[in-house]
Amino acid sequence: xxxxxxxxxxxxxxxxxxxxxxxxxxxxxxxxxxxxxxxxxxxxxxxxxxxxxxxxxxxxxxxxxxxxxxxxxxxxxxxxxxxxxxxxxxxxxxxxxxxxxxxxxxxxxxxxxxxxxxxxxxxxxxxxxxxxxxxxxxxxxxxxxxxxxxxxxxxxxxxxxxxxxxxxxxxxxxxxxxxxxxxxxxxxxxxxxxxxxxxxxxxxxxxxxxxxxxxxxxxxxxxxxxxxxxxxxxxxxxxxxxxxxxxxxxxxxxxxxxxxxxxxxxxxxxxxxxxxxxxxxxxxxxxxxxxxxxxxxxxxxxxxxxxxxxxxx
Length: 313
Known about the structure:
Layout: E1 2-7, E2 12-19, E3 25-28, H1 30-36, E4 53-57, E5 60-73, E6 76-89, H2 91-94, E7 101-104, H3 118-124, E8 132-138, E9 141-146, E10 159-162, E11 170-178, E12 185-193, E13 200-203, H4 204-213, E14 220-221, E15 232-236, E16 239-243, H5 245-248, E17 249-253, E18 260-261, E19 270-274, E20 276-279, E21 285-287, H6 289-292, E22 295-300, E23 305-308
Parallel strand pairs: 2-7, 3-6, 12-21, 13-20
Antiparallel strand pairs: 1-2, 1-5, 3-7, 4-5, 5-6, 8-9, 8-22, 10-23, 11-12, 11-15, 13-21, 14-19, 15-16, 17-18, 17-19, 22-23
C-alpha cells in the first residue's frame, strides 16, 4: 500500500509506501534517477545533514544522504522534514516499482535521521488530535488516517494489544489455532506488525505446523479450497483476533502486466498461496498485510498499543 504526498520546494508529487516496519523517510535522488534512466520524480538535495547511511530492508539495501525538505501530507505542511535522498540501491526495487519513496511509521527510537518523524512533529505542533494513526485496508484499496481512526469504527469490536517494546510495533504472539479448537500451535514469540510485508513470516517449523493445521501440504495451495477453510484465531497473550480464509489465502494473477496480487480467486491465471511463509529466523515473526486486511488497525503511539477492529467482510 502506498499513497501521495508532496515533497520539496517547489513541491512535487511522490507516491510513498507507508511502512510500520521502519522509522525513516526517504525519496529518490538525482543520482538514482539518472541510473533509472526515466522521468521518475526525484529530489536534488541542496543541503546535507550529517553523514550518509545504508538502510537495510527485506527487499535489499539502499544508500542515501540526509537532508531536510518541505513535506505536504494532504493539506498540512511540515517544514524542513529530515529525510534521506537515495543515491543507489536495487534498481528493480527503486526504478521499476509503483512508489517513489517511503515514510516510516515505527517508533522514533529506531530511526537513523536526526530530528522528528512527521507524525511526532504533527502531534507536538497540535496539528493532529491524538498521537496515533490507523489503517483501514479493504483490498485493493486502503486509507491511512493520521491523528485518529475512522468515525464509523465500532469501538466495541476493538481488541487492544500492548506493544512489547517501543522500537518496532512488536506484539506478544502466543499461539495460532482454528477458532473453537483447544489444540493451538504454541508460539510464545515476538511479532512485528508490518505494513511493508506481504505475507506472514515465521520460523519454518512453526509455519509447517500452521499450514498442516489448515490441511496445506505446501505453501502453494489450490484456490478451490478457499470455501472449505476455517477461521483462525491469533492469540496475543490473551487478546484474540480472527483471521478469515480471504485474509490468509493469497491469490496472485500471472496474466496481468506483472505478477501481482489479484484479490480474486476464480479468474484464469490465478494461483494461491498460504499467507504463512517460512523464514530462517528462529523466533521472530513478521505479521504483514494479511493480519490487517479487511479491518481497521489502530497504531496508538502514545499508548504503545495496537487496536484491531473486527473483520470487515
